[in-house]
Amino acid sequence: MRRIVCFGPGPKFKGGISNYNTSLAKSLEKEENTEVHIVSWTQQYPAIIPREFVDKSSGTDFLEDSQIQVKYITNYNNPYSWRQTYNYIVSLKPEKVIFQWSIAVQGLPLGWIAKKLSKHQDIEVIFDLHFVIQKENSSLDRLFTKIGISHADTYIVHALKTAKELEELYPNKEFKLTEDGERSTKEKGSVIKLYHPIYDLFKPDPTFDVEAFKKEHGLKKHVFLFFGFIRKYKGLHHVIQAFDKVRKERNNVSLLICGESFWATLDNSKLSTKIKNATFGLAKKMFLKKSDDEREYRPLELIEQLGLNEDTMVVNEFIPNEDVNKYFQLSEAVVLYYEYATPSGIESLSYNFKLPILATKVGHFPETIEDGFNGYLAEAEDIDSMAEQMIRFLDHPLPGENVAAKTDQLSWENYAKAILKA
Description:
Elements: E1 2-7, H1 16-29, E2 34-43, E3 69-75, H2 79-92, E4 96-101, H3 107-117, E5 124-129, H4 139-149, E6 154-157, H5 160-169, E7 176-178, E8 190-193, H6 210-217, E9 222-227, H7 236-247, E10 253-258, H8 271-287, H9 301-305, E11 312-315, H10 324-329, E12 333-336, H11 345-352, E13 357-360, H12 365-368, E14 375-378, H13 383-395, H14 400-406, H15 412-419
Parallel strand pairs: 1-2, 1-4, 2-3, 4-5, 5-6, 6-8, 7-8, 9-10, 9-12, 10-11, 12-13, 13-14
Helix pairs in contact: 1-15, 2-3, 3-4, 7-13
């Protein structure tokens, strides 16, 4: 019986990386003679960050039908817990430890744990890279990334762009890229180019009455969906402005916005929140450009300014797991007009509902979206182009069969088998 450790946020946390880590663990467990453990953070970030990261809304337990054990042990702010984490992982005697790498600030604890694990010749240390060059791309981010991922035996990337960034980060290292997972665990520098698998945690509900929901909430025939945390790089301000142009030409369209404002999850009247805001603000000023501080990002105000209240439905909160399906089922296309993109969980989630994607030509999107087949691509930073693609979709809708055909190979089963090949 081989043991695999999936290190990353456990299912009690919000967000795509938690869903991803859980899906990966479940897919690995399905492989023969494989025992899987999730080793999770208790606190993922510095204590000064003013945000709630725990999912307190969902009732669905994604692990209820599995034998996966979850250990919440790693506190970013407590280095002693890093040692506890290392000791616990070693005690499991795993064959592989797969770290989810999604933000540079985690470089210190993950780098320390990975360095200690790398000394065990019988453990393959794998970093599943959701990015290499972070969108802010500060010198501090690059330093933390170098510290965090330098001790991996194997890297998984979801886009060729990420593999190129890895080579840029370590110009003196030699990497060997494969797309099937074949590699030697005795040679460092293996890079597996895979993909972002299609989420199977969320599925359509055949009993959900789409038309009744639309009528109740005043949604029109064609619904465009923006889903997920509201952050500046995801370009909701672009989506709203582009939609404003569309609804001036078409009277049968609605925009559905579902997601929590990333920096508005705590009670600002509490002293603890005020202290966190002040401390975090000071740290941001020291290490980031002013343009990268998105705490004042309020794109939803554009709805009132542009007079879009009658054409827009906003669910400005974290969406519980059991409610996710209905927002995708009543939509015709998902809009991802990002300023910057790494492989997107929302894109993967959309494919599970066979929804075409309208996206900007940034990041990996040109690799995964075939313009005119499973989606439409707009020019970045060009509101007119974005509006044009939305109208193009209305004039030439794309069948769900196209989306399904494009994503046939993006299964978690294939993903798991590639990881286990070595």
